UniProtKB/TrEMBL annotation:
<protein>
    <submittedName>
        <fullName>Plexin domain containing 1</fullName>
    </submittedName>
</protein>
<dbReference type="InterPro" id="IPR031152">
    <property type="entry name" value="PLXDC"/>
</dbReference>
<keyword id="KW-0732">Signal</keyword>
<comment type="similarity">
    <text>Belongs to the plexin family.</text>
</comment>
<dbReference type="GO" id="GO:0016020">
    <property type="term" value="C:membrane"/>
</dbReference>
<keyword id="KW-0472">Membrane</keyword>
<keyword id="KW-1133">Transmembrane helix</keyword>
<keyword id="KW-0812">Transmembrane</keyword>
Length: 246
């Protein structure tokens, strides 16, 4: 099952596979990429995503300094430095049905002697998200989070704007994280995979983006300000989480 979930770029159309030249030769950087299809992330169709060298995809519309905090798809968020080796690359491809990002032979900053990591995140047009792990040379629990967060999973948030009490004419941006799905990183090993499957639509709710972007009944308590910002954003819930080990 793990082999079925891993997307082999060798078998893909080579014209569709792109090596990101900037991200493959730098550290702690991120770059915006446009998808060829609408990917339903927590019920919202998105085409603009941000790939980061640190093993995750930022899904927020507004890029800020705290990309690792929330609104991410993270197969393995850690302090990776692709610029360490010429063999390290960040590549991606898009065939209209799935968008895949692969962190290929990347090393941890300051822990290069531990070996290289190869893993990927696949975003399917039907809303499924698959994390594939090909080479994980050390236990994730032993990776230090001192210089960079270490985690794997999904997170989303919504944003509101409040006027500052001191300067009424200015607006302060507040980000509320309302859902996070964290993986048990002890199960992230070489030749393993995780598949997130969205729950089917709840017919009792009005789905603003159509049936192909399923949502379910909200079960979280969130600040009441959310109702004025985007009530549909919270009507999405990730369903089944499958872990396939070697």
């Amino acid at each position: 099952r793990t082999k079925e979930l891993w997307v082999d770029e060798v078998e893909a159309n080579q014209g569709q596979v792109k090596v990101h030249g900037i991200l493959s030769n730098t550290h702690r950087q991120a770059s915006r990429v446009i998808l060829s299809f609408d990917f339903p992330f927590y019920g919202h169709p998105q085409r603009h995503i941000t790939i980061a060298t640190g093993g995750f995809i930022f899904m927020g519309e507004v890029v800020h300094r705290m990309l690792t905090a929330t609104q991410y798809i993270a197969p393995l968020m850690a302090n990776f430095n692709p610029s360490y080796s010429r063999n390290s690359t960040i590549k991606y491809f898009d065939n209209g049905m799935v968008f895949v990002v692969q962190w290929d032979k990347v090393y941890l900053e300051g822990k290069e002697e531990m070996g290289s990591f190869t893993f990927q995140a696949a975003l399917h047009s039907d809303g499924r998200i698959v994390f594939g792990y090909k080479e994980i040379p050390m236990p994730i629990l032993k990776i230090s989070a001192t210089q960079h967060p270490v985690k794997a999973g999904l997170s989303d948030a919504f944003m509101i704007f409040n006027s500052s009490p001191d300067v009424p004419e200015t607006r302060r941006r507040i980000i509320y994280e309302y859902h996070r799905a964290e993986l048990d990183t002890s199960k992230v090993t070489s030749m393993s995979a995780v598949e997130f499957t969205p729950l089917p639509s709840d017919q009792r709710l009005s789905n603003p983006v159509g049936d192909k972007h399923p949502c379910t009944h909200p079960t979280l308590h969130i600040p009441k300000e959310a109702g004025t910002e985007d009530p549909y954003r919270v009507q999405w819930w990730w369903g089944e989480e499958n872990v396939f080990l070697k």
